[in-house]
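Data deposition worksheet. Section B asks for the primary sequence of the deposited chain exactly as it was used as input, without tags or linkers unless they were present during the calculation. Section C holds the resulting structure in token form. Section D is free text for depositor observations; keep each observation to a single sentence. Incomplete worksheets are returned to the depositor.
Section A, Depositor: J.P.
Section B:
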Amino acid sequence: MEIQKSTGVVLSSRHIGESDYFCTIYTKEFGKRDFVFKGLRKSRRRPQIISAPGTAANLVYYFHDGKASYIVNEYNIIKHNLNIRDNLKTIYLLYYILSLIEKTTGYNDKNKAIFELVSAGIDNIAGTDFPEHFSVFFALHLLKLHGILPDFTICKICNKSDYNGFIIDTMDFHPVCTNCAGTVKNKTIPLHKTAKDFIFESLTKRFSSIDHSAYPSSHILDLLFAITLFIENYYHVEIKPKQLLLNELSG
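Section C:
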């Protein structure tokens, strides 16, 4: 047994027993890990905000090689991001990006870039006026970090780059131009050319540098649905907040 220190972001949490919290946290030093906060629900001294998804904190805990979870001895909250919980759009957006991280990463698989992505993502949620665009931007960069983002500049069937409207093959997320659409037997999502342009800008510019008003929300929501469906198919998971987010953004 040894004492370790980590900086992490809470991805999800739940009650266990009468007074404990079980939290899945993505740490900068070790990747995703599970932690137990003993007696937290009955404590008057320790703030329970540590268990809120999106909270960033420094942790001190007992590490046992081979253990599935670790008991936290001490913690120091860095950010609690309570301002995100002011409206449903930002709440659902927060839970969406946290779910993406939790469902697509393995335990103890360190990736500093993913930690920095989720940390920066949470910091920028409250300030964005384009939550649907931000959702797509975040998901695209996560897929890029995972190394599974395809080349969107060409149709996967004919290799032409001058296509406008296109469909997404949700099994591999590759674009297929409308001329080749009839050859695809998997489930597909039709998308407008603006979706292709937004993907290009998202991968080459900062989010704040993009003119999001040039991309209609309906086109971006279609792209968000296609991305999420691909992630669910690829990782064999369910991104539970997706429907709440889509309903809220399209309402």
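Section D:
The longest strand covers residues 2-16.
The chain has six helices and eight strands.
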